[in-house]
Amino acid sequence: MWTWGGVMIATTAVAAMTLGCSQPSGTAVVIEDKVYTVTPASVNVKAGIVTGEVTEMKVTERIEKGSGRLVSAAKLTGMLKLKNSSKDQAVRLVGGKIQYIDAQGQPIKLEETRTEPTIKFATYGAERLDPGQDTTQSVDVDFPAEALKAKKLKEIRLELTYIPSPYKEETVNFTVSIGSQ
To answer: Does residue 178 sit within a domain?
Structure first.
């Protein structure tokens, strides 16, 4: 009985060492972020009564180290801070669209498989700005590979869509008296 049990244990140990404990023959793939600086990294923006700033802009793509194979296509990231500079209008932010413009003033097209770079103000209440209020929105949109070529990209265009509405604060005075008790 012990002999049969010993053979089973030895067979199981050999199988485990051969199948489960062997080292993988290939090496792990290392992915690196390739970061392109955007100059300037921060710009002031003004669209009608909406003012603000785009900060922390950079373009990042993910590359397989060694082979140089593209793992994740380029993306533009940053922060968009907007403020309603009006004194008498509220603003409802609807959305934004980004276009990449070349040296000849023409839009640079994205590859067919990529999505149009848009900004959505999805948080309820964050899309409405009363006079003087501001909001901050992260930007994370696709960036065309063509624009990474030297001297190809001249400017980035941000088209904001918003709905202004009258905003009024009025004071009403009325006469009162308190009767004696």
So the answer is: no
